[in-house]
Amino acid sequence: MASTTQVDQCITKARSLLFVPGDRPEKFRKAMLSQADVVIIDWEASVIPERKAYAREATSAFLNSAFCSKRPVAIRVNPARGPELELDLAVASTLAISGLFLTMVETSADVTKVGNYAPAHWELVAMVETAVGVFNVSAISLTPRVSRLAFGNMDYQTDLRLGDVHEAMIYPSSVITLASRCAGLPSPIAGVTADFSSPDRFIADASFERSMGFGAKLCIHPKQIAWCNRSFATTQADIQWAKTVIEATRDTYATQVDGVMIDRPVIERARRILED
Fold it and tell me: What structural domains does the chain harbor?
């Protein structure tokens, strides 16, 4: 069982975050042995109401067992405006976890309700998943205890009756990434890609999401982790480009590299790449 000191700040730095259903304990070990930066044991979307209590019991039994892993763990809890959250928090408070993913966050009060109860070392991720949540995301991002934002794309699509196309995600993605930046939060976490049968759709989604300013992605199957880590990694080509820009601009902020004009904003982008 990992100590809290080992997992502090792991969610804010994560690129790949793997969901595992809380009522499927036979899947816990495989998830923990994966290469995901963080494992999220889900007590919400993947668990029917009749099995919520079992999910909490199974999670507690596993995390308090002799199984040893340094893989950071978070819990996705049920919504603040439902009957299960207090039960979730009571059990979660007994576990050595990194933090919580707060479901269906629509107001600052949804975060505050948990933040007033949660231990100080827990990282709290506000999952923005509805039209109301997107509308209020600036206030949500500025709420004390929010460590990072995540986009619940599938619930958002359902709420607005949208198709599963990138064009429909441009506005909420832009608003969420803008709010994160203005609040001084890490780049937000993109939502899931339901198709895990081949890498093509996942990589296309991740490429779009990275272009919108996301810095990580939620995964629903272990095979997606490698695709995710690759999609959100700084490439050697990125690093070489950044080094070339810095070298070319030692004495001037206005020059060209390979026929492309370089000035201060581009130089700052190159510096950030080398600092990551």
Answer: 4-231 (3.20.20.60), 236-275 (no CATH)
